Every structure is written in C-alpha cells, then in structure tokens.
Amino acid sequence: MAPGVDGPAATDGDRPAATAVAVAGVRVAALGSDRDVLALRGRRTRVVDLRGRTVLPGFTDAHTHPVSGGLRHVECDLDRFDTEAAHLAAVAAYAAAHPDRAWIVGDGWSMETFPGGIARREALDSVVPDRPVLLTNRDGHGAWVNTRALELAGIDAATPDPPLGRIERDPDGTPVGMLQEAAIELVRRLIPEHDQATFERALLDAQAELHALGITGWQDANVPHRLVAAYRAIAGRGQLTARVTLSLSTNEFDLYGEEADPFGGTDAIAAVRDAVAAEASAGGLGRPGPGRLAAPAVKFFVDGIIESRTAAMLEPYLGGDGAPAGGRGTLNFDPAVLRALAVDLDARGFQLHYHAIGDGAVREALDAIEVARRANGARDGRHHVAHIQVIHPDDIPRFRALDAVANGQPLWAVHESQMDELTIPILGPERTAWQYPFGSLLRAGARLAFGSDWTVSTAEPFPQLEVAVRRVWPGEVDGIPFLPAERLTLDEALRAFTVGSAFVSWQDESGWLGVGRLADLVVLDRDLDLVDLGLSGDLAATKVVATLVGGELVHEAPALEG
Ligand SMILES: [Zn+2]
C-alpha cells in the first residue's frame, strides 16, 4: 500500500520473517519459527516446513486474459518466434496438422519482427494459399491476414476504413494484409465461434498454468457473455480454484447489440448499462463474497496503442523528421458517453476498468471517474486505469485525489525494440519520459496494482517484478535502465502485485499474510531476502514450488516433496 493511503498494514504481512506456516481450514493459523509452528501440527492443521524458502501471499493478477492463454493450446501459437521465416514455418506446420480447420486462427506474433510493425498477406499466402488465415499480434490490437481472408470479408481497395479501425494499404489503396483495431472485426466476425466446452477447457488449462506461477486470483480484463457462461459453469462444478473477478466487456456487440455503438449517445448508454446489469445479476454475481467468482467490473477500451498511433494523445504524434505528423490517435468513446456511463455504473455499484495507453486516454478516464465522484459522492468504487503507458505529469496526483487505482503492466517499462524503434520516435523525448511512472505514482500517494496483460506478455510474476525493480529486461545485467527514477523497491513491487492487485480485484482477504487471513499463499524455491540483497538476475528466475488457495494445495512442484 502506498504511503499515506489507508488500507491494510501490509508491511508485516507481505514478507513475513517466517520459516513455517500453519494452515487450519481455509486460514493461516500461525506464521513464525519452526518451533512455534510445528507445535501446532495436528489432525486439522497442515504444516509446511519452508526449509529456508520464502513464503509470500499469493499473487493476484489485476489485468489478464486467461482464456486467450488457454486457447493457445487449441489455436496457432506464435508466441516464441522472432523472424518472419519462423512465424511462417509455424503457420505452415499448424495448417498441415489441422487439415480439417476451415480457418487458421492464431495469435502471439510480435510487431518488431516486421518492418514498421506491418505484416503482409503475400507471405502468408505462400504457406496457406487456399484457406483463410487470421493471426492476431501479441497485444491483440492488430491482425495479419492472408488474401483468402480478405476476399471472404470482401475487403479490397474500395473498402473504406471502418469507424475506429484501419486497413493498412499500399499507396494504390490495395490492402496489404494487416488490419488495425476495429478493422480486425471485418474478418473475425466470419470465423465460427468456439463452443462453450472449448472455452471451459481453455479456462481450466489457464488456471493450472497460473497456479503454477503462484497466481491465486485475478481480474479477467475483458469478459464477453460467452465467457461469463464458461466461468459460471466451471465454478458451478467446483472446478474454479482461483479467486476471479470479471470485467464485463463493452466492446462485444453480440452482448450489447448493434445499438451499443460507443458514439451512439443515450441509446448506447442505456444498452450498455442494461446489458451489464443483466449480466452481473443473472446467477447472483455481485461483489466477491465467500464464492470464488464475481462480476463487479465493466471494461472500457478508451483507446488503442502507441505503436500503431491508435492511442489517444493530448498532442500529435511525431513523424520521421521529429515534427508533428499523423494526428493525435483515436478515442474509442465520445467523452460525454464515457462520462455518462461512469456516473450511471458507479451509482449502481459497478467498478470502472479503463484501458488507457495515451496521455489523452488516461486523462479521459480520470475525467470520467471525477465526474462520477462529483455526481455520486466518493464511493468504494475501486475504479482503475490500466496500462497507463503515458501519463501527463499534471494527471499523476489525480490518481490519489480521485482514489483511482493505477493498474500497471511492469514488464513493458524497458528498452526493447518495440519501445526503441516503434514508440520513442513517434512520442519524442518529453513524452518518452512520462511512460510507466510507477515510482512517481507511489510518491504521489497513488494505489498501485500490477497485472501481466497475459497473453500480451508473460504471466510469470517474477520477470515482471524484476523489471519493476530494475527497469531492464529480465536477465539483461548490463542493460540501460528505462527511466531509472521510476524504479520501485522489491517490497513496493511485491505489494503492487499482492495487496494492491487484491484490492482492485475486491479480494480483500487475500494479498497479505497474517494469522486469521485466508491461506492464499506461495512458497518460493529460494530465500527472497538473499536475492534482494544482491539484486542479481536471480529474481526473474525465481520459481514457485507450492501454491495454496484457501488452504488448498492447487500447485506443487516436485522439488517440495524431496
Ligand atoms: Zn488487456
């Protein structure tokens, strides 16, 4: 918890000087020395001897997309490749292995592999000429398609860009095979939807993967109707072991109807509001209680991303010569609609969860929260602004003033090619220095939460924590830190990923350890105090050997048995 912000006293909870933990039922019964704790061993108290390893509260991922992670086992997974040839070989292999699939669908490719972040259809045609292909890039804001997919969608040189989307083109207007933002939907809407059983399988696969990384709870950052149904089904069967908070989607037209165009004025507001209320109340999903599933949040994509110039900026992007060029990006909502929805949903007890990357979008999100507070008074809304890539310095104190949670994705705060080649040149030096200001936010008293945005980035907490602490890519010992004044201490970073993320996910009994608290905890393979003293690359390599949720062992590495 940030200095000056009310909340649980996490200092003695998040890094307990304990060598043993006793768990009775769902709660921590004791935390202390071997002697004290071992004395409690009994029929109803399970004792884990830590043997010098560190115990921490379980991690809560404050912004993640687990179904996308689970679907990687079903679709074409391009997460591991760094050359165009390797991507194409993987697509060809997947197509050959799945001759029955009418569509080749996948994701995970990275923009820096392709000149200017633009992938072309001819390359895909060379490996899959006959079936349509749609491959979303790692951040989900752009997609690479082949010629067959463009033909089926009827996209050609005469097709106008859709609202809030862009069809990348050659100078003569011919589509190159790269679709940005809402233009992806022109193709995606043709792809047959997975059935619910596939979504449930994906969720369970993802849950196992996340528990193995020490994640005991999360906020699913964009949940359309069909995924609410999948979550409900596995929770109903007692298979949901994580604590999950759902951010209901506002950009899925199948849920909210065509009239829910965010620029559509009052009809749009009513449609979104009614659909969200119906979704949350059906099945009794309110604020998290004793169950493991709740749907108190509503997600808004306020803008896009910097690299494709779709993030909304206060001032224009820069061109190759450093002069303003290419506009200020795109706000996905009419500000009046965004504010009216904030007032209405806040009054009805919903949490507002904003995707905001550009300084213009961050300001719009904060403005919406401010308007809601003025209309409804200060409520325990726990509204949050996620990604917060560029924050105008004037807006940093507003997080504390509005009690808005800053939901950061620490892995992104590094010099790597997407930052150095695609982002810094179009932001210029002043705005480059306003990126991911986690240290400044904490110093200004903001509440900070961390999330991975998996599958945009890795779900592993320790590489993310290392970047938060060093602002250098994990393991790059000699790398140049990205804005070193924004570095956090290890304890600050851990608090963001535990008590901060649990707070913004309404998991108030998780996030810090103490006697009587829920036994949501992880055991690491090493002593974190020793890592902290040396602060070597060992932090990123830290592994979780056991994960408990509510006292139940949900992951155990073979190492713990020995
Ligand atoms: Zn996300």
Please give a structural write-up.
With 562 residues, the protein is of the alpha/beta class. The protein has helices at residues 34-38, 66-71, 84-97, 121-127, 147-153, 184-188, 196-212, 225-236, 253-256, 266-281, 335-347, 359-376, 396-401, 417-432, 438-443, 461-470, 490-504, 528-534, 558-561, and strands spanning 20-24, 27-32, 45-49, 55-57, 59-64, 76-77, 104-109, 133-137, 142-145, 165-169, 175-181, 215-223, 243-249, 293-301, 351-356, 384-387, 405-408, 448-450, 521-524, 544-549, 552-556. The strands form four sheets. An eight-stranded parallel beta sheet has the order 5-12-13-14-15-16-17-18. It has a six-stranded mixed beta sheet with strand order 6-7-8-9-11-10. It has a four-stranded antiparallel beta sheet with strand order 4-19-20-21. The chain is globular, with a radius of gyration of 23 Å. Residues 1-13 and 253-259 have low confidence and may be disordered. The structure holds zinc ion. The site of zinc ion (ZN) has 4 residues, from loops.
